[in-house]
Amino acid sequence: MKIVFVRHGLTDLNKIGRMQGSSFDHDLDEIGQKQAETAAANFDPAPFDVVFSSPLKRSLTTAKIFTKGQKEIKIDQRLTEINFGEWDGQFLTALGQKYPDAIDPWGKAAADYIKYAPSGESFTALNRRCGSFMTDMEKNYLDKKVLVFCHGTLIRMMFAHCLTNGDMNCFETMANCALAKMSYRDGIYRLNYYNRILTFE
């Protein structure tokens, strides 16, 4: 199996540095729309056997732009971005100043964020959700090429689940519209590339 993940295009919340988990269903802004269209011009969806997307607008819009009407897009709730609970919609820089122990050295939410956002989804729960999706991919698409449109933190955990026992510290948040690819064979995942940015201005 070969599986490629694509992060959605830019949104207004991305632009101003607010947390954007599953509580916010903002679509691409004007820049994000153009970004996705230009990146998609350098992307061929034809080789893929199946396409999945998060149900959130920013992901689904990106999926439609990239697939150019050539593929059915299967919606999977497990691809929804992490729910950051009380942190959703807040400025990440302000959260880092208030809760420095819950922000990692790269300025992203760390596992301990859940102490201050008790209604949020833990990294352990996110890992479990990603694992459920990947197990289904292994069972149903073993000899296929799979294309997945989803979200920054979710993609980090997908790769962490498969390659580092759920430790997201090894993976950065990909750029908007960037791609990452893994291959799976005989119970082993291998990283092919990560955060590949298609040419756009």
Automatic annotation (TrEMBL):
InterPro entries registered for this protein in UniProt: His_Pase_superF_clade-1 (IPR013078), His_PPase_superfam (IPR029033), PGM_Phosphatase (IPR050275)
Sites where the protein binds substrate: 7-14, 58
Any one GO MF annotation of this record: phosphatase activity
Organism: Lactobacillus helsingborgensis
Protein name: Histidine phosphatase family protein
Superkingdom in the source lineage: Bacteria
One Pfam family this sequence matches: His_Phos_1
Residue positions of the active site: 8, 81
